[in-house]
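Posted in: Structural Biology > Protein-Ligand Complexes

Title: Requesting predicted complex, zinc ion in pocket

I'd be grateful if someone could produce the C-alpha cells for the following input. Sequence and ligand are given below.
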Amino acid sequence: MYHAKAYSAANAASPLARTTIARRDPTAHDVRIEILFCGICHSDLHQVRNEWSGVMPTVYPCVPGHEIVGRLTAVGDAVAKFKPGDLAAVGCMVDSDRTCPDCQAGLEQFCPNLTLTYNFPDQHLGGVTYGGYSDSVVVDERFVLRVPSGLDLAGAAPLLCAGITTYSPMRHWGVRQGQKVGIVGLGGLGHMGVKFAHALGAHVVVFTTSPHKQEDALRLGADEVVVSRHAGEMQKHANSFDFILDAVSAAHDIDAYIQLLRRDGNITLVGAPEKPLAVPAFGLIVKRRSLSGSPIGGIPETQEMLDFCAAHHIAADVEVIPIQKVNEAYERLLKADVKYRFSIDMASLKSE
Ligand SMILES: NC(=O)c1ccc[n+]([C@@H]2O[C@H](COP(=O)([O-])OP(=O)(O)OC[C@H]3O[C@@H](n4cnc5c(N)ncnc54)[C@H](OP(=O)(O)O)[C@@H]3O)[C@@H](O)[C@H]2O)c1
Ligand SMILES: [Zn+2]
Ligand SMILES: [Zn+2]
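-- Reply #1 --
Done. Output follows.
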C-alpha cells in the first residue's frame, strides 16, 4: 500500500479539497498509472453532491474522476499488454467478474459484479474505490485502454466517459449516412455526440438551450442548430428523426423530443437527471417510437472508440484547468458554461 495525493469531498455540501488516500501496490495483473489528465464529467458532480442517492448513494470521502489518461510507472509480473512508460487510459470501470455472459460478450458495463472507478466497494483495500482526481491509480490491466498515438492527451481523457457513452448507443442503434440524428444538450457528452454522428455520416441537428453555442455547434459538425426554447423551431422537425441522443443533465421536457421522432425512431437517454422525467404514453404509441437508455460501453468497444477517434482526428474540446479550480469548474458546469469539457492537468496536484 502507498499514499497518493487526491481531491475529495467530505460530504454532499462540502467543496472538494486536498487529501491523501491509500492505493494498493500493483498485484501480478495490475498497472500503476501516473495520472496526467482527468476530465470532469457531470456524473462527478451528481455523485459528489449525492444527487443519485436512490440508486448509488455516495460514500464519503468521495474522490471522483473517471476520465483518466496517464503514463505507466509500474506493471505487475503477469502484465502482458503494457510496459512501464506506456500511455494508458482508464474509464468508468476498474473490474468485473469476467465470467458472466455480459463479460464474456465484452459488455462489462452490464456485469452484475462490476466495480466502478469510484464510489464502489474496493475488492482489494475495503472501503470504496477512489477515482482520477489523484496523482496516480492502480488498475487491473484488463480494464486499462491503450491511447493511440497522435491524440492530444488533455482532449483524449474525456473520451473515456463522454466519448464512449455517446459512441456506444450510436453504434448500437446503427447511426449511419442518410439518417437524421438529434443531439440534445451541447455539454461534454453532447459535443462528443455531435462529432461522432457527423463522422458516421448522419445529418446532425443540435438542440440547445444556449443560443450562444450555435456557432460552436456548427463548427463541431452539426448541420443545423435548434434553440429548444423556441417551440416553433422545434415543431418544424416533428416526425423526422431516426435517432435522438438526449445528454441533458437536468429536468427537461423529453416528450418534446419524442414528438420529433419518425415512425420506429429511437430516443436514447444518456443524461441522468436527479429526478424522473415525465413520458406520456401516446408520444411513444402513435408512431411505435422507442425510448431507451445506455450506460458507457464495454472495454472492447471503448478501445474501438479510441482507435476510431485517432483515425478520424477526434478528441474532446477541452478547457484545461489546474485542480485548484475544480470547485469553480463545478459551478460553471451547473450553468452549462463549459466549452466543452474541463480537463484537469494533474501536474497542478503534484506541485501542490
Ligand atoms: N449514461 C451514462 O453512462 C452517462 C455517462 C456520463 C454522463 N452521464 C450523464 O449525462 C449527463 C450529461 O453529462 P455531461 O458531463 O455532458 O454534462 P454537461 O457538460 O454539464 O452538459 C449537460 C448539458 O445539458 C444541457 N442542460 C443543462 N441544464 C439543462 C436544463 N435545465 N434544461 C435543458 N438542458 C440543460 C446543457 O446544454 P445546452 O447549453 O446546449 O442546453 C448542458 O451543457 C449528466 O446527467 C451525466 O451524469 C451519463
Ligand atoms: Zn462520466
Ligand atoms: Zn461479469
